[in-house]
Design a protein that fits this description.
Layout: H1 5-14, E1 18-21, H2 30-39, E2 45-48, E3 57-59, H3 65-72, H4 78-92, H5 98-102, H6 105-112, E4 117-118, E5 128-129, E6 151-152, E7 156-160, E8 167-170, E9 174-178, E10 181-183, H7 191-202, E11 206-212, H8 216-223, H9 232-240, E12 245-248, E13 255-257, E14 262-268, E15 275-277, E16 280-281, E17 287-288, E18 291-293, E19 295-303, E20 309-310, H10 321-331, H11 333-339, E21 344-348, E22 358-363, H12 370-379, E23 389-394, H13 402-412, E24 419-425, E25 438-446, E26 464-465, H14 467-473, E27 477-481, H15 483-486, E28 491-496, H16 503-513, E29 517-518, E30 522-527, H17 535-545, H18 548-551, E31 552-553, E32 566-569, H19 575-578, E33 584-585, H20 592-601, H21 615-618, E34 628-630
Parallel strand pairs: 1-2, 3-20, 4-12, 22-23, 23-25, 28-30, 30-32
Antiparallel strand pairs: 2-3, 5-19, 6-9, 7-8, 7-11, 9-10, 10-19, 11-14, 12-13, 14-19, 15-18, 16-17, 21-22, 24-25, 26-29, 27-28, 31-32, 33-34
C-alpha cells in the first residue's frame, strides 16, 4: 500500500518508470502536448516540477502495463481476477452442511477487514489548510485548444445519498470557473447524479468533497464500474488487503481518505441555476460539447505537506485511460462470468473503441442462439449498456490478434443473418446517435457453425473488386483500400467526398448492382480526410461515427433479396447531406503555436530525441476552427 502519491512516485522512479521535468512547462496546453507525445510512444510517467505553482504535477502515471500493475500492487492484472474468483467461489458455492457454512467465516472475516474505517482527528490530507480556498494555486490543466477552460481531470468525487447514507466515489471532470467554483459534470446514469436528484427532490443542499492523489488505488476505484450498493473503498481495501482510513472533512460531514494529497470541500445547491460547462477534449477523441451542469462551490481546500497534483489527459487513443480500462477489463471479467454470463471465457475492449464503442467476448458455446443471449445479457449489465459494437466468438479465440480475428469474422459471419441490431441507452458522449443518450447497437455472431448458423450460398465465390471501373465511375472516391481482401479479410474501405444527399447509399447501390464489388462481406465508407493506411485510425473513427441501425445497411438485389454485403457509413454526418439534426463535434488536435513551443524546448526537457506531435497526424480531420464542426441552431 502506498501511503502517499510521493511514495508511488518514488517507486516509479526506482523502476526507471518516471522522468522529472525541471524545465518550465505551462499547464495551459503545453503539459498536454508533452504528455500526448509520450503516451503515444510508450513513454514514461512525467513529474512536472516547474509549472508555475508550488505543487509538482504527475501525469501518465498509469500509462503502461508495468505502471498500472505497480499502481494496483500486482505483477500481472490476472492476479486480481484470480483473487476475485477465489473470493466469489467462497461465498457463492453450495453449502450442504454446517461445516461447509462455517468454512465461509474466515473469508467473511477477511472481507470485514477490508471495510473502510473512520478515524478520529485530522489526517495528513489536512496538514495545511488554505487560508482562502483558491483553485488557481493548483496546476490545473487546460488540455486542448477549444476546451472551455481549465479542468480537474483526476478528481475523486465523494457524495452520499441523503436517505440511505450510501457513499459514492466517482470521477467526473470539473471545469474551473472561479477560484472557488467549478462545474460538476455528472452523467445522468452515474451514482452521484442520482444523489443529486434525491437532494433536489428533498430541497436540500448537497455536500460534496473532492480528493486528489494519495494511494493510486483510490484513483482506480473512483473509475470502477461497481454496483451502486458497493463502496468503492471496499474495492480499494480488497486490492490492498488493508482497510482505508477515513477522516471527516472540515466544512461538511463527508469522509475522505486520510492520506490523499488534496481535499476540496464544498457543496452543490440543486435549487441553483445550472451553468454552461465545456467544451472538453474527451476520451472519444472528439470534443464533448458544452451543456448545462450543476455548480460546485468550494468552501475549503486542505492538503498534505509536499503535496503532488495528479492529472491526466484524454483524447485520441491511446491515452492513459486505456490502461485504466485494461485493468477494469481484467478485474470485472470474473464477476461477469460468475453473475451475468457464465459461458464467457474472455473479454477485450480495444483502445480504439474508447471503452464503450467496441467490446469483444469469447464464449463456451453450448446451444443454438447462445451468442444472442450473451448480447442481451451484457447489454443489460451495468455500464455495459453503453456498448455500441459487440462481437461474440468462440472459446480459445485470441481477442487481441486483430488481423486473425478479422479473418475469422470473414470466414464465419454471414453479413445478413449473423448481424443483429438493437436499440437502447448509449453513452451521453456518443455524438453519432440521432437522440441524446439513446441510440442503437450491433451484435456480431462469429461463433462456430451450428444448427442456428449457416453461411448463405450467396457469400461463396471469389472476391471481385473492379478497381478501374470504380475509379472511372466515381470521381468522388478519393482513396480505396482493397489489399485486406488478398489477406483473407473480406473488407473494402473507401474514402469519399460526399456532395449530395444519400450519397453513400447511392454509391453502394451502384457498386453492388453493377457487381464492381462482389463477394465482399463488408464495405466501409469513410470521409476523404481519413488515412486508409491506418486501421487503428479507421477503427476509432468509424466506431465513433456510426449509429448502427442508421448507418449499417444492405442493398436489395432487385428480386427482394439482400445482397450479402454489410455496407457501413463511417463518415461524419451533416444536416446538408445526411439530415443529421444535432451538433457534430470536432476531432481533437493541438494548435500549431503550442506544438512549435514544445518543439523549441524539447531538448531541455530530458525526454530524449524529439518526438513529433501526434496532432500532426490528425490535423486533416479537424473540420473547423472550434469544438463544433457542425452547429444546429
Amino acid at each position: 500500500m502506498y501511503h502517499s502519491l510521493l511514495q508511488f512516485i518514488s517507486a516509479l522512479e526506482s523502476h526507471g518508470e518516471l522522468v522529472r521535468v525541471k524545465e518550465f512547462v505551462s499547464p495551459n496546453l503545453e503539459i498536454t502536448e508533452v504528455a500526448d507525445r509520450m503516451v503515444k510512444n510508450e513513454g514514461k510517467a512525467l513529474l512536472f516540477e516547474n509549472n508555475g505553482t508550488d505543487f509538482p504535477l504527475l501525469i501518465n502515471a498509469f500509462a503502461s502495463d508495468h505502471r498500472i500493475c505497480m499502481a494496483l500492487g500486482v505483477n500481472q492484472l490476472d492476479e486480481i481476477e484470480s483473487a476475485i474468483a477465489k473470493l466469489m467461489k467462497e461465498f457463492l458455492g453450495p453449502r450442504k452442511s454446517l461445516l461447509d457454512k462455517l468454512r465461509v467465516l474466515p473469508a467473511l472475516k477477511e472481507v470485514v477487514s477490508w471495510m473502510p474505517k473512520s478515524v478520529k482527528g485530522r489526517g495528513q490530507c489536512q496538514e495545511i489548510i488554505m487560508e482562502k480556498p483558491d483553485l488557481s494555486k493548483l496546476p490545473i490543466l487546460t488540455c486542448w485548444p477549444f476546451d472551455g477552460g481549465p479542468f480537474i481531470t483526476l478528481p475523486g468525487v465523494h457524495t452520499r445519498d441523503p436517505e440511505t447514507g450510501i457513499r459514492n466515489l466517482g470521477m467526473y471532470r470539473m471545469q474551473v470557473f472561479k477560484p472557488d467554483m467549478t462545474g460538476m459534470h455528472w452523467h445522468l446514469h452515474k451514482g452521484s447524479a442520482k444523489h443529486y436528484q434525491h437532494y433536489k427532490e428533498l430541497g436540500k443542499r448537497m455536500p460534496v468533497s473532492v480528493t486528489l492523489g494519495g494511494d493510486p488505488v483510490y484513483t482506480y476505484a473512483a473509475t470502477a464500474p461497481l454496483p451502486e450498493e458497493v463502496d468503492e473503498y471496499l474495492l480499494a481495501g480488497f486490492l490492498r488487503k488493508k482497510k482505508v482510513e477515513l477522516v471527516k472533512c472540515l466544512t461538511n460531514d463527508l469522509e475522505v481518505p486520510a492520506d490523499v494529497d488534496f481535499v476540496i470541500e464544498g457543496y452543490v445547491d440543486p435549487a441553483e441555476e445550472l451553468i454552461l460547462e465545456g467544451p472538453f477534449g474527451d476520451h472519444t477523441g472528439f470534443y464533448s460539447l458544452a451543456d448545462m451542469f450543476p455548480r460546485f462551490h468550494v468552501t475549503c481546500i486542505t492538503h498534505r505537506k509536499n503535496a503532488v497534483y495528479p492529472a491526466t489527459i484524454v483524447g485520441i487513443p491511446p491515452q492513459e485511460d486505456a490502461w485504466i480500462g485494461k485493468a477494469t477489463e481484467r478485474i470485472f471479467l470474473m464477476p461477469i462470468k460468475m453473475t451475468v454470463a457464465p459461458e464467457v471465457t474472455n473479454m477485450h475492449m480495444p483502445a480504439e473503441g474508447v471503452f464503450h464503442n467496441i467490446t469483444m467476448v469469447s464464449i463456451r458455446k453450448e446451444y443454438p442462439g447462445q451468442a444472442l443471449k450473451i448480447m442481451s445479457s451484457l447489454w443489460g449489465a451495468g455500464q455495459m449498456m453503453f456498448n455500441k459494437i459487440l462481437l461474440v466468438t468462440e472459446e480459445h479465440t485470441s481477442l487481441t490478434n486483430y488481423r486473425n480475428l478479422a479473418r475469422l469474422i470473414s470466414e464465419r459471419v454471414d453479413p445478413v443473418n449473423d448481424i443483429h441490431f438493437f436499440r437502447g441507452p448509449v453513452d451521453i458522449l456518443d455524438h453519432s446517435s440521432n437522440s441524446y443518450a439513446y441510440g442503437s447497437k450491433v451484435g456480431i455472431d462469429a461463433t462456430g457453425p451450428g444448427p442456428d448458423r449457416s453461411l448463405s450460398d450467396q457469400t461463396a465465390g471469389s472476391p471481385v473488386v473492379c478497381i478501374e471501373k470504380i475509379g472511372d465511375g466515381f470521381p468522388e472516391i478519393k482513396d480505396i483500400r482493397t489489399d485486406l481482401v488478398a489477406d483473407g479479410i473480406s473488407l473494402v474501405i473507401i474514402a469519399v467526398k460526399k456532395s449530395k444527399k444519400r450519397h453513400i447509399r447511392l454509391m453502394a447501390a451502384d457498386l453492388l448492382l453493377n457487381k464492381w464489388l462482389e463477394h465482399i462481406k463488408f464495405i466501409l465508407f469513410m470521409d476523404e480526410q481519413s488515412d486508409l493506411t491506418s486501421l487503428s485510425q479507421i477503427t476509432w473513427l468509424a466506431a465513433n461515427n456510426i449509429d448502427p441501425m442508421r448507418d449499417c445497411f444492405y442493398q436489395d438485389d432487385g428480386s427482394g433479396n439482400k445482397i450479402p454485403a454489410l455496407c457501413i457509413d463511417g463518415t461524419r454526418k451533416t444536416r446538408k447531406f445526411d439530415d443529421f439534426q444535432r451538433d457534430w463535434p470536432n476531432v481533437i488536435a493541438m494548435d500549431d503555436q503550442t506544438i512549435a513551443a514544445i518543439d523549441a524546448k524539447w531538448t531541455h526537457l530530458g525526454l530524449g530525441p524529439l518526438v513529433p506531435s501526434p496532432s500532426l497526424t490528425y490535423k486533416s480531420l479537424v473540420i473547423s476552427n472550434g469544438a463544433v464542426s457542425q452547429t444546429i441552431e
